[in-house]
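Long-time lurker. I teach an intro course on protein structure, and each term I like to show students one example going from raw sequence to a predicted 3D structure in token notation. This year I'd like something fresh instead of my usual example. Would anyone be willing to generate the tokens for the chain below so I can use it in lecture? Attribution to the forum is fine with me.
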Amino acid sequence: MCGIAGLVFKKNLQERRLNEFLEATKEMNHRGPDYSSYVRYENCLLVHYRLSIIDPDPRSNQPFHSGNDKYICSYNGEIYNFWD
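-- Reply from a regular --
Happy to contribute to a lecture. Here you go:
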């Protein structure tokens, strides 16, 4: 199962605080040791640790970005009835 963490802040986050949060998310490494990444956009931070079980393709690494980078998505990856 993947690990997801997010942070929304009122003002610009100091780099030191950002690095502290990213360091703390490393505690989730066991939830997704196959790949990890984060996205920072304005006052939001999204961190994803990926565990590749069914789909090891690197194109499935998250967070996902829309074609125009307007939207960013990170989720656990459990899509029910995907084989139907």
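Some talking points for your students: Strands lie at 3-8, 35-41, 44-50, 64-65, 72-73. The CA atoms of residues 8 and 44 lie 5 Å apart.
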